[in-house]
Specification:
The chain has 274 residues and is of the alpha/beta class. It has ten helices and nine strands. The protein has a nine-stranded mixed β-sheet with strand order 3-2-1-4-5-6-7-8-9, sandwiched between helices. The structure holds 3-hydroxy-5-(hydroxymethyl)-2-methylisonicotinaldehyde (PXL). 3-hydroxy-5-(hydroxymethyl)-2-methylisonicotinaldehyde binds next to strand 1 and helix 8.
Length: 274
């Protein structure tokens, strides 16, 4: 059995966070483990406002011991970390246990929540975690924050951001232009960019026009992690993850009036009922 772990927040609504990660690992036939950093809950009586409850440091550390010392992993990802100590503990365990296939999802926003989360953490995440990352998976907003570029609205600007972020230590930078880049450029496909420190590769798939995208970032980085755990190269893991997220978005649905998650099991329906 191939073991894989996520260090991430719990999204009680099930669409993002470690719930999305574990569902995705399962679809790849892997054994998923999770260290919870924060618990996110949403208020049905107040427009689905997000509340984030950090776990105390000793509880996080005990989970990291369980996973990295107690079991070992082929690959790991981190998602929402939420506190300075979670960033530091993630760094400590990923480096002490020499997790080479580490995917950094630099979660800075939640779709629907509207505002940036923990902006004070971004510089620390960049400094401590980018140098460990086999792949970092920013969306356009996160790529702007990590690169310092004001606005990324074209493939050329994505390339420039990727060069800057690669210069901060990540071995591969995967910037998700997705539907947002299409709407900025009038493109007809969802286009992302992979940079390996030298060459660029555009990664495209059909644009799924949907509002039900909650958890898409988490699912994408989990799928890349899962592919790496299975021994795929980074480009192959990214291309497979792109197909996976397209199916997941096709399977998206309205959970309620505020939010709609993708569905990581969407690819099975696609395959069975094509
Ligand atoms: O989609 C970003 C995200 C990541 N992790 C957790 C979340 C969210 C957004 O809601 O709740 C735990």
């Amino acid at each position: 059995m191939i073991k894989v772990a996520t260090i991430a927040g719990s999204d009680a609504s099930g669409g993002a966070g470690l719930e999305a990660d574990l569902k995705t690992f399962e679809e790849y036939g892997l054994f998923g483990m999770a260290a919870v950093t924060v618990i996110a809950a949403m208020d049905p009586d107040n427009n689905w406002a997000h509340a984030v409850f950090p776990l105390e440091e000793s509880a996080l550390q005990a989970q990291l011991e369980t996973i990295f010392k107690g079991a070992g992993v082929e690959a790991a990802k981190s998602g929402m970390l939420g506190t300075f100590y979670a960033v530091e503990r993630a760094r400590e365990y990923i480096s002490a246990y020499k997790v080479k296939r580490y995917v950094l999802d630099p979660v800075m926003v939640c779709k629907g929540a509207g505002e940036a989360l923990n902006p004070e953490l971004n510089a620390v995440v960049a400094e401590k975690l980018l140098p460990l990352a086999e792949v970092v998976t920013p969306n356009l907003f996160e790529a702007e924050q990590l690169s310092g570029l004001k606005e990324i609205a074209s493939i050329e600007q994505m390339k420039e951001a990727a060069r800057i972020i690669g210069g901060k230590g990540a071995r591969h930078v995967f910037i998700k232009g997705g539907a947002k880049l299409s709407s900025l450029t009038g493109g007809t496909e969802a286009t992302d960019l992979l940079f390996d420190g030298k060459d660029f590769e555009l990664v495209k798939d059909s644009l799924i026009r949907t509002a039900w995208t909650h958890g898409a970032g988490c699912t994408t980085s989990a799928a890349i992690t899962a592919g790496l755990a299975r021994g795929l190269s980074v480009p192959d893991a990214v291309i497979l993850a792109k197909k996976f997220i397209t199916s997941s978005l096709k399977g998206g649905f309205a959970l309620n009036q505020w939010v709609g998650p993708g569905n990581p099991s969407g690819w099975r329906k696609d395959r069975l009922f094509r």
